[in-house]
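Worked example 3. Consider a protein that binds pyridoxal-5'-phosphate.
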Amino acid sequence: MKEYLSKKAQTLEPYLPGEQPKDKKHIKLNTNENPYPPSPRVLEAIRSYVNGDLRLYPDPDAAMLKEAIAKHEGLSPEQVFCANGSDEVLAFCFQAFFSKGRPVLFPDITYSFYPVFAALYGLDYKEIALGEKFEINISDYLIENTGIIFPNPNAPTGLCLPIDDIKRLIEYNLHKAAVIIDETYIGFGGLSVVELLGEYDNLIVTRTFSKTHSLAGLRVGYALGNKCLIEGLTRIKNSFNSYPVDRLACVGATVAIEDDAYYMDVRKKIIVTRQNTVNALRSLGFTMSESRANFILVFHPYIKAKKFCEYLYKNGVLVRYFDKPRIENGIRISIGTDKDMEIVVKLLKQYGP
Ligand SMILES: *Cc1c(COP(=O)(O)O)cnc(C)c1O
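Given these inputs, the predicted complex is written out as structure tokens:
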């Protein structure tokens, strides 16, 4: 049957998301979802939109959502682009900003969807090695490129770069290439580069409602940038899908952006839980770098990550490890509720091969 498949469909190596078990028996700390529910106002707004209007297509521009995001960020709606999860936003970015010939640059240890997108669109890319302590060294990126992308904080390391470092990178590429900063985890303690949007027109910031706003199931992500770059993204989107943000997603995300008080509280709780978990795991002999995300990447001096993961799985806890040099012994644990993390710490304490 292979003759029916394009070369791409035969050979692409797709992204592998963390497991989504069918039952609800596990403590799920493997995909960085938020352990707290969405704001009650969000759920109420979505319910109020479950009516006969669902026979109609949604607004192709998601204007209501764009306006809410623009207002929240102090930007104009023309500087906002929305799509079906930030994975889709990123897929559109790869097409809108990167061209063949020169390489796209991203770290060798980072969100594993980037190389998949590059391969999907036949782009050249170069993976830049992280430093000794998993840090991104901006100097390593000051080379010829068609564009640069990395998450800040990076995943799965959790390390966050200061704004000035990113500024150097943007300035180096000014009038040459776009710099995309994936701010999926910025709400958990890092400083956003959104303030640089007024100064530089080659910066794109992407965000998602999946992690900070407890809406992974709704699928909404967005990009912020110069009007002209956003127009480019919109042209790509409209050549693929006119309606990536459905009616329920549009209203749910709009109300989520507006309910700052609720989400500030959720983020604060997660940051406190993260610190308590770090302290507890350090006292058990684990090492880790300083995470500013809603996950931690922890290493044990002599027990293999795979062993820990299998043991936790058997005991009903899902976490993730990556079969990749340098981090093959890291366990990535999403930060759950205090109770979730107490269970994890207790299990790791009791571990005996
Ligand atoms: C989770 C994640 C995304 C994807 O977010 P969605 O909006 O759920 O598609 C993008 N980038 C990074 C770094 C992530 O960890």
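Take a moment to read the result before moving on. The chain has a mean pLDDT of 96. Residues 137 and 143 are 12 Å apart (CA to CA).
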